[in-house]
Amino acid sequence: MLSFIDSTIGHNTYYRVVGSYTYYGLYYYRYQYYYQNSWGNTRWYYAYTTYSYAGGLWASSGSTVDIRGSTIEGNEAYSTYGGLYLASTTATILDTSFNGNYARTNGGGLYINYGTMSIIDSSFNDNSAGSYGGGLYANYATTSITDSSFDDNSAGSYGGGLYTSSSSMILVRTSFTSNLGTYGAGYYMVGGTTSMTAHIFSSNLGTFGYSDMHRASGTLSIEMGCPEHEYNFGKDLLDCVSCSSIYYPKDMSYDDCRTWTPHEYASTQSELEAAIIFNSTVELLADIYLSYAITILGFEDLTGVIIDGAGLFKVTINFC
Known about the structure:
This protein is mostly beta strands. The protein is built from one helix and 40 strands.
């Protein structure tokens, strides 16, 4: 087992010197071979191969990795795997921060390729990748992330905070805030399955309709995550037109879970937003001015108002 307890893996830049050349993060190796034809003539050829290395740490080949109370920061890879690279490993990451790591292509903070990983009480801050997965890139991996956050990460193309490809991902009480990317600034998924429980997306910046999340393919499910007999239908509209044909909320904070009652009261916008309008009556105690309401939902047993979704227009509700 490889263990890091209360440790720092920081400010490393992968490079390798080959002759008079220095290669950062990406190592090119030229080798020579030849063949002889039937007339006995010898012909020489050169071939090139490319290797990509992690800026901070590389663990592979069935390794077991345990990282607790640690910091992975300021590492840089010229190609992929900025902070940490895990290949076919079993990893546990607890109370650990990934800060300011960089990869020229994919996986700025962490890259897991196959393998199994559990991340708990950890954060990904200000990591970046030139292409995909500024904070974390998961490829054919089985991963769970609990009580963690992705803040201010960026990717040149997809998945500023998180990018998953053909992976099994479980997200519980995890937030995505102020991440940057063309599509799926918070989270980009392609293939595989993702389950999100009590998630929060806020202030992610990308293409409209895909700024919080983009589901290129795969199966996505969203759960409340509330204790028994409590409910939370969420707040605001998740900016992810590819996620579902129905309304998905962007804020499903666990702290907003409330006990259902048959009669709710509201005299302010915040009280109306917090009301659980499920087979119940909401009594308005005063005039309420709803700023930037973009749609009103109405079903047989479910009625709700999406507020502060896109900031397109203002609506006023008065009662007699």
